[in-house]
């Protein structure tokens, strides 16, 4: 197990860490998915986000993630009840940011099956991914019986509203998580998001050979080394980050996102809030999980 003050060993770069790979991947989905055909989902049918391809399907991660985020014990859950007395009334619906959104399936599941009704934004650096997610939103959200006042089928629209208020917008936007500044985007909520999801994005970034200059040390570093601090700035104080990885162990994920060096340029820090449990396998006398999901909560720095 790595020490608290050091990062785990870097992953060897592969094509899975390149933008070119994901552009081709989602372009293939666009070419093969006739998502604009109104006959695909009949008006009386409820769309099922689980039908969409998702990372970690083989270990049931999407279902386990949804179960965790909608449990009675998770503070942002629509079903949260600290004393078991029932659902709370909220004046503010939690905002959700999906990093590396892919086809948008995680947000569709939270909205259609999980009861999350607040503002949702899915971001990806692949234009093809964002285009696919927007098309699927027009299919899935408009077929769910929502009564929003925006037209999800409008070609110029990036939004799909599923509620009667401005908080209920789902949008998909192009964003480079390393080189762009999220807080400068029009869709950015003041203070950051209540819930940020990473379902394999850190894995992909860890497989990239790209480097950036660390402004704190003026040295070249792999972009995965800068990623935790970038994500920390996207979460509001008291908010949550849920990271799912198949390339890093649970202990390694914790080390990456709680290491002091990762948060040197920002305020606050991540602390482990909870973990999602998966089936355990044993090989060569060692026990482990095929995937790790760790939920962090952002706390204020000691200087604040």
UniProtKB/TrEMBL annotation:
Segment Disordered: which positions? 27-55, 74-98, 141-166
Keywords of the record? Cytoplasm, Methyltransferase, S-adenosyl-L-methionine, Transferase, Transport
Q: Which GO terms describe its cellular component?
A: cytoplasm
Keyword S-adenosyl-L-methionine among record annotations? yes
- Predominant location: cytoplasm
Q: Which residues form the Methyltransferase domain?
A: 95-139
Per the record's keyword annotation, is Zinc included, yes or no? no
**Where is the protein found, in the record's own terms?**
Cytoplasm
- Gene Ontology molecular function, alphabetical: protein-lysine N-methyltransferase activity
State the Gene Ontology BP annotations.
Answer: methylation; vesicle-mediated transport
Q: Which domain of life is it from?
A: Eukaryota
EC numbers listed for it are 2.1.1.-
List where Acidic residues composition bias occurs.
31-55
Q: Which family does it belong to?
A: Belongs to the class I-like SAM-binding methyltransferase superfamily. EFM4 family.
Q: What does this chain do?
A: S-adenosyl-L-methionine-dependent protein-lysine N-methyltransferase that mono- and dimethylates elongation factor 1-alpha at 'Lys-316'. May play a role in intracellular transport.
Q: What is this protein called?
A: Protein-lysine N-methyltransferase EFM4
């Amino acid at each position: 197990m790595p020490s608290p003050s050091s990062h785990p060993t870097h992953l060897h770069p592969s094509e899975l860490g390149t933008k070119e790979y994901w552009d081709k991947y989602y372009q293939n989905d666009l070419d093969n998915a006739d998502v604009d055909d109104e006959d695909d989902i009949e008006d009386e049918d409820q769309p099922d986000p689980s039908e969409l391809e998702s990372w970690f399907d083989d270990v049931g991660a999407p279902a386990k993630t949804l179960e965790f985020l909608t449990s009675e014990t998770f503070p942002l859950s629509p079903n949260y009840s600290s004393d078991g007395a029932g659902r709370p009334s909220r004046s503010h619906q939690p905002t959700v940011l999906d990093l590396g959104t892919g086809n948008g399936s995680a947000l569709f599941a939270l909205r259609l099956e999980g009861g999350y009704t607040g503002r949702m934004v899915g971001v990806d650096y692949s234009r093809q991914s964002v285009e696919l997610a927007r098309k699927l939103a027009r299919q899935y959200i408009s077929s769910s019986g929502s009564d929003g006042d925006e037209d999800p089928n409008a070609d110029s629209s990036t939004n799909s509203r599923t509620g009667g208020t401005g908080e209920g917008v789902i949008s998909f936007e192009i964003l480079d998580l390393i080189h762009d500044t999220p807080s400068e985007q029009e869709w950015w909520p003041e203070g950051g998001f209540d819930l940020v999801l990473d379902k394999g994005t850190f894995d992909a970034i860890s497989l990239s050979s790209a480097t950036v200059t660390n402004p704190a040390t003026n040295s070249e570093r792999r972009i995965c080394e800068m990623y935790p601090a970038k994500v920390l700035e996207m979460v509001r104080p008291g908010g949550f980050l849920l990271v799912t990885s198949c390339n890093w162990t649970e202990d390694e994920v914790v080390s990456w996102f709680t290491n002091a060096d990762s948060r040197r340029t920002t305020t606050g820090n991540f602390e482990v809030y909870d973990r999602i449990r998966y089936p355990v396998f044993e090989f060569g006398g060692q026990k482990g999980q095929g995937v790790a999901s760790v939920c962090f909560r952002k706390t204020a720095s000691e200087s604040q």
